[in-house]
Specification:
Keywords: Coiled coil, Membrane, Transmembrane, Transmembrane helix. It comes from Robertmurraya siralis. The chain is rod-shaped. Helix 1 packs antiparallel against helix 2, helix 2 packs antiparallel against helix 3 and helix 2 runs parallel beside helix 4. It contains four helices and two strands. By secondary structure, the protein is mainly alpha-helical. It folds into two domains: 83 residues; 85 residues, no CATH class. Helix content is 80%, strand content 2%.
Length: 230
Amino acid sequence: MAVIATIGSLLFFFSLLYLFIHFLRKLKNRNKQLSKKTFYPAFIGGLLLFIIGTSSVDNETQEQLAEAQEANKALLAENQELKDTIKEYEANIKDLAGTNEKLNNDFQELASKAEAAEKAELEKENLTQKIAELEEKNKSLEDKITSLNGQLASKTTTTASTASSQSKKAPKNSSSSGSSNQKTTTTANTTEYFANCTELRKVYPNGVASDHPAYQPKMDRDKDNWACER
């Protein structure tokens, strides 16, 4: 329809131009006549075509305008939807920021706990090392005590053996010697100590009773008041 309007406008302007040229010729030659077959068809036809084409163009323009308005409404609705989506994203971003801050706090707390755990582990290792050193010292002391007990038992055994041999050499009917030997034996017996049953059996092969000075509860395993019996 725009083509029709263009053709109509061209014909209309052509008729006007033809009229203007005819007017100029009329000034030179008054007998010059206007060609009705050329002017009127061009003038009227051009005017009609221009009106028809223009009305059609107006209809198309209105349709395009309506389409543009519909498209504008759709764009506005889409724009509003995008705004709502942006608001939702902003709210999610705030929530994520809060969650991130909480996670950072938790991470710092865990880092502090991990550091404290490392310190505790180091202290534990130090204490374990000290305990091991103390155990070694304790073991060394126990070995020394055992050695000293063995030496004491050996000396006690030697003393008891000497006292026994002296009592055998002395006369049995001598009361004074018997009294003296009895005191010596009693003195020796009160100081008797044996580290274990093996040492005790060297002196007393059948063991000793609970009223004997060499009796020790730890050597009476069956608790029958007789230590180191065979």
